[in-house]
Write a structure and sequence with these properties.
- The protein is of the alpha/beta class.
- It folds into 2 domains: 46-216 and 317-335, Rossmann fold (3-Layer(aba) Sandwich), CATH 3.40.50.300; 220-313, Rossmann fold (3-Layer(aba) Sandwich), CATH 3.40.50.
- It contains 13 helices and 13 strands.
- It has helices at residues 14-34, 59-72, 101-104, 106-111, 123-131, 178-184, 198-206, 220-226, 240-249, 268-281, 289-296, 301-309, 321-335, and strands at 46-50, 77-81, 92-93, 117-119, 136-140, 152-158, 187-191, 211-218, 230-235, 253-259, 284-287, 311-312, 315-319.
- Helix 7 (198-206) links the parallel strand 7 (187-191) and strand 8 (211-218).
- The protein is globular, with a radius of gyration of 20 Å.
Length: 336
């Protein structure tokens, strides 16, 4: 979906105000569900990487960083994901060589490159499957879902987007009121530069929660490859602008930006338009890893041609020194 522009305002405008009655109803239902007792407690520790808002915030890079830190501690993490857009009905162990994004979702395909990944619409059933593969579960999303007990939950916030206008869906991007979410979290992770996450930071400090800070770092080799070259930057993620900034930080010259909805399924029309621009300009099509795995799994020859012509700019999340130390402490407590 495309997030409405008014969600990103500094405060609710007339459109958001008109939707506040619906927001109160949605928030009440979400909060009632959130407060249910967990349906299942796993036999292994569960670490959940969530966010308080709809849309992209950096959960997947944080989940990957979490798994790598656990591996450095000698543990065997297993990812658990609902798999946005996945078609599976039962828990599935993701095979990057056999599965496509339409089957298991785009994010699990990226996660599976770091550690085993399970996709399941039923998180409790997925956790039981994951227990056979490792000794700690890393959930990518699912913070608001009550099906599974979490031993540590981290809320990831984009510093450039924050909470948007601060309203609950559909008037704004919040999944439910912030207070109850902060009360159940074990920490907050702020990614990137900007002051729009300040409200979350203040709420975290009032709740005596640690606040970790990190930034997304473009892959050095790919940054060298596209540095100084003209590119067509396109993305179907929660915040395409964040990706465009990363491309510019890598030193590329963006001649055209194309924005698509989050988890966008590319069509022949999309692909032909981008390829026509590529042929006219000679610029390199550059996209995200998530977008590229969706392109490669398409049955359309036009979309696959776009995939062949495109390069992905991978990013990794790096925490600052103090945050990295605090994160290690959080993990060790959760594992204990």
């Amino acid at each position: 979906m495309h997030a409405p522009a008014f969600w990103s305002a500094d405060k609710p405008d007339w459109r958001a105000i008109c939707l506040l009655p619906a927001s109160k109803l949605y928030g009440a239902v979400a909060l009632s569900r959130f407060r249910r007792a967990p349906a299942y407690r796993s036999t292994v520790p569960v670490i959940c990487i969530g966010n308080p808002t709809l849309g992209g915030s950096g959960k997947t890079p944080m989940a990957i960083l979490t798994a790598r830190c656990l591996q450095a501690l000698g543990r065997k993490p297993v990812f658990l994901s609902r798999g946005y857009g996945a078609s599976v009905a039962e828990p599935v162990h993701v095979d990057p060589d056999a599965h496509m994004a339409a089957e298991v979702g785009d994010e699990p395909l990226l996660l599976a490159a770091t550690a085993p990944a399970i996709v399941s619409p039923d998180r409790a059933a997925g956790a039981k499957r994951a227990e056979a593969l490792g000794d700690v579960i890393v959930m990518d999303d699912g913070f608001q879902n009550p099906a599974l007990h979490k031993d540590l939950s981290l809320l990831v916030v984009d510093a450039g987007a924050g909470l948007g206008n601060g309203a609950v869906f559909p008037a704004g991007p919040l999944r439910m009121p912030l207070g109850p979410q902060i009360a159940r979290a074990g920490g907050v992770v702020v990614i990137g530069e900007g002051a729009r996450a300040d409200a979350v930071v203040r709420a975290a400090k009032r709740g005596d929660l640690p606040v970790l800070a990190g930034s997304l770092i473009p892959d050095p080799a790919m940054a060298i490859a596209i540095g100084g070259r003209p590119v067509i930057a396109y993305a179907g993620i929660g915040r395409p602008e964040k990706f465009f900034t990363t491309v510019e930080q890598a030193g590329a010259e963006i001649v055209e930006k194309r924005r698509f909805p989050d988890h966008h399924v590319y069509t022949d029309h999309d692909a032909r338009g981008l390829m026509a621009l590529h042929r006219r300009s000679g610029a390199i099509p550059v996209t995200t890893q998530k977008d590229l795995v969706r392109l490669k799994g398409s049955r359309s020859s036009s979309v696959r041609a776009l995939a062949d012509a495109s390069v992905a700019l991978p990013v990794t999340l790096a925490l600052d020194e103090m945050s990295a130390a605090a994160f290690q402490t959080l993990l060790e407590r959760a594992l204990a």
